[in-house]
Amino acid sequence: MKIITAKTATEASARAFDIVNELMRRDQLQVMGLATGSTPLDLYKQICESNLDFSRCTSVNLDEYVGLKPTDPQSYHYFMQEHLFNAKPFKESFFPDGTNPDAGEVTRKYDRILAQHPIDLQILGIGRNGHIGFNEPGTLFDSHTHRVALTASTINANARFFENPDEVPRYAYTMGIASIMAAKRIILLAFGDAKAEAIRQTVNGPVTLEVPGSVLQRHPDVTVVLDEAAAGRL
Ligand code: F6R
């Protein structure tokens, strides 16, 4: 794992942007794996303000809530539209279909999409409990797209985006750990001291199902981009 630490989240995001920019320049970014949440927002802002053109690129997102339509402001689809796609349209953008309750159908279809669009660069955030995508502790490393019941810690962490905590969906579809590990390159972003322990365990701890991020130690091309606070326990 390569570790990059910058003073602030904005400076760290600029380092991640440099990697995206360089891959685009070398024409090595046909498929980009994207994350939602607060962590990649600065990177997306820097992409939106750049002159990069994604109109020949495909995006695949890590996850989507079950039960939310793409037009629902809380859906991850809507989030990506707002924070990236309105300014930087991709040729095509894929999400697991949160409106379809048939988990078998959704996950089979998304795995087919991922097989047809191998990811050149996956952007990841990490949960305080070490989750990547919505792969909570205990998720098997050979998992592909699946439906998950979100843990209490993740529901609480996400409640800030909803008016009423009862509205936070209880299930999501997520790419699995094997789906993430299949990406050619990965950038893991983490900012703030709330992430410092998850980063310590991910980077320096044992590779264990209890810390899903730790599996990234086995990937040949991971860059971990941190601000000083998130790097505080390394
Ligand atoms: C989002 C995702 C999650 C987040 C993680 C961190 O698509 O897959 O794993 O990356 O929950 O969330 P933030 O960035 O809001 O701290």
From TrEMBL:
Entry keyword Hydrolase: yes
Catalytic activity: alpha-D-glucosamine 6-phosphate + H2O = beta-D-fructose 6-phosphate + NH4(+)
Lineage top rank: taxon: Bacteria
Pathway(s) where this gene product acts: Amino-sugar metabolism; N-acetylneuraminate degradation; D-fructose 6-phosphate from N-acetylneuraminate: step 5/5
Top EC class of this enzyme: hydrolase
Family matches, as InterPro entries: Glc/Gal-6P_isomerase, Glucosamine6P_isomerase, Glucosamine6P_isomerase_CS, NagB/RpiA_transferase-like
Protein's UniProt keywords contain Hydrolase: yes
Keywords: Carbohydrate metabolism, Hydrolase
Boundaries of every Glucosamine/galactosamine-6-phosphate isomerase domain copy: 8-219
Residues of the active site: 63 (proton acceptor), 129 (for ring-opening step), 131 (proton acceptor), 136 (for ring-opening step)
Role according to the record: Catalyzes the reversible isomerization-deamination of glucosamine 6-phosphate (GlcN6P) to form fructose 6-phosphate (Fru6P) and ammonium ion.
Family, similarity comment: Belongs to the glucosamine/galactosamine-6-phosphate isomerase family. NagB subfamily.
Protein name (record): Glucosamine-6-phosphate deaminase
